[in-house]
């Protein structure tokens, strides 16, 4: 404790003693705080803040306090919601200026809104993302000699470089003799749709072809290895690919929502870890104002932006049930982009020109170098190890 703090504490204690003595001389009751023992003047203790009322009253008194606490929380929640949705940047600015009494604390608000988002997904059985594997039969061409060809997907007559590629790719004769159908495999991504709304549509021969591709890969690995050590290594690589790569492909081919559980587990953790990175980006772009904006101010601003992101995701989840995925995607991009722009303008108080430049730069760097790689890593991990 510093000398100044000691002097202030001693002065406060002396003031309380004088006030208590004056009340005693006037015949007014003076008690001691039940929490710290200091003389109690007024409804609250001046030293520790403990209420004089110990709440050992009637049941009606407890019910009154309960209703009062709920009304107080509801009032803060309403004020916080209004500021979050209608006054972008007001919540972090209020924190910086010390006007925090009427609002829910930023970290608590972030956890509350993110929890509501995932509870909505779980309550309505909605998947964050579903991957539906689609097998499209390839059109084959046969020449006069009986050779079979398939179109080359890389060939493009309108592209100066791609038009030099062969237009057709020959199909091996043994594959033609076996009568194996050729398929192009692709995935269709569906966001925020009910689990079970998309099922596997692969025909049996397409499933068999996926399994055959797995065997062919294993055979190719074995052919390229000769010594015992290399064969052991090839066996290990083959096992990893069979278990994780082809296993993941087979899992999503059977169940498009197979990745939903690991995504729900890891996405909130990853987003929480990204909060400080967004704050550091803001601190870097506003380095010249570092005496006005501390790192904790940037962190609270990051919490505010990510909290609104979850609000936008909640709205997008509802809109995805009635609108196309493309419209929902552009709604997310537009709503979050506009919110970030207005928030930076209110919080950092710069001109619209510099605000726009920095908002685009911060959002672009964060999205390209942090957010997208992190989410892509979560998806890949979920695919390989779910």
Helices and strands, in N-to-C order? HEEHHHEEEEHEHHHHHH
Strand order of the largest sheet: 4-5-6
Number of helices in the DSSP assignment: 11
Main pleated-sheet profile? 3 strands, antiparallel
- Gyration radius (Cα, Å) is 32 Å
Principal-axes shape call: elongated
Please estimate the helix content: 55-70%
What's the count of strands?
7
Give the rounded overall mean pLDDT: 82
Q: Which stretches of 5+ consecutive residues score pLDDT under 50? A: none
From the N-terminal CA to the C-terminal CA, the straight-line distance is 53 Å
Range of strand content? 5-15%
User: Based on helices, strands and strand pairing, what is the structural class?
Assistant: mainly alpha
Main attributes of the structure:
single chain, 7 strands, 11 helices, mainly alpha, 386 residues
Report on this structure.
The chain has 386 residues and is mainly alpha-helical. Helix content is 62%, strand content 10%. The protein has eleven helices and seven strands. It has helices spanning 3-25, 59-86, 90-97, 106-123, 173-178, 204-223, 228-254, 260-285, 295-319, 325-348, 352-385; strands at 31-32, 39-40, 126-137, 141-142, 148-151, 168-170, 183-194. Strand 1 (31-32) and strand 2 form a beta hairpin. Helix 6 packs antiparallel against helix 7 (228-254) and helix 9 (295-319) packs antiparallel against helix 10 (325-348). The radius of gyration is 32 Å and the shape is elongated. The two termini are 53 Å apart.
Layout of strands and helices, then pairs:
Layout: H1 3-25, E1 31-32, E2 39-40, H2 59-86, H3 90-97, H4 106-123, E3 126-137, E4 141-142, E5 148-151, E6 168-170, H5 173-178, E7 183-194, H6 204-223, H7 228-254, H8 260-285, H9 295-319, H10 325-348, H11 352-385
Antiparallel strand pairs: 1-2, 3-7, 4-5, 5-6
Helix pairs in contact: 3-9, 4-9, 6-7, 8-9, 8-11, 9-10, 10-11
């Amino acid at each position: 404790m510093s000398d100044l703090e000691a002097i202030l504490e001693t002065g406060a204690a002396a003031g309380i003693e004088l006030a208590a003595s004056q009340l005693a001389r006037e015949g007014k009751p003076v008690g001691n705080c039940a929490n710290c023992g200091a003389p109690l003047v007024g409804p609250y203790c001046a030293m520790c803040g403990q209420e004089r009322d110990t709440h050992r009253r009637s049941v009606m008194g407890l019910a009154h306090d309960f209703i009062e606490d709920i009304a107080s929380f509801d009032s803060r929640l309403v004020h916080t919601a209004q500021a979050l949705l209608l006054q972008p940047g007001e919540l972090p600015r209020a924190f910086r200026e010390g006007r925090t009494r009427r609002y829910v604390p930023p970290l608590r608000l972030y956890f509350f809104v993110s929890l509501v988002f995932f509870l909505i997904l779980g309550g309505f059985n909605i998947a964050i993302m579903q991957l539906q594997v689609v097998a499209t039969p390839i059109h084959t061409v046969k020449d006069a000699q009986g050779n079979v060809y398939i179109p080359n997907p890389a060939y493009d007559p309108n592209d100066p470089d791609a038009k030099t590629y062969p237009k057709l790719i020959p199909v091996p004769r043994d594959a033609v003799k076996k009568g194996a159908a050729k398929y192009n495999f692709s995935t269709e991504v569906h966001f925020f749709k009910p689990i079970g709304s998309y099922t596997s549509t692969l025909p049996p021969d397409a499933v068999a072809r996926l399994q055959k591709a797995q065997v062919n890969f294993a055979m190719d690995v074995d052919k390229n290895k000769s010594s015992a050590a290399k064969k052991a290594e090839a066996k290990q690589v083959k096992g990893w690919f069979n278990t994780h790569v082809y296993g993941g492909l087979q899992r999503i081919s059977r169940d498009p929502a197979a990745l939903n559980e690991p995504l729900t587990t890891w996405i909130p953790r990853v987003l929480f870890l990204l909060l400080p990175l967004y704050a550091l980006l803001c601190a870097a772009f506003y380095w010249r104002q570092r005496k006005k904006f501390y790192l904790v101010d940037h962190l609270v601003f990051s919490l505010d932006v990510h909290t609104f992101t979850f609000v936008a995701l909640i709205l997008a989840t509802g809109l995805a049930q009635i609108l196309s995925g493309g419209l929902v995607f552009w709604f997310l991009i537009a709503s979050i982009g506009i919110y970030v722009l207005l928030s930076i303008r209110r919080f950092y108080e710069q001109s619209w020109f510099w605000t726009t430049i920095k908002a685009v730069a911060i959002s672009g760097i964060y999205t390209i170098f942090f957010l997208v790689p992190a989410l892509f890593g979560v998806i890949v991990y979920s695919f390989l190890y779910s």
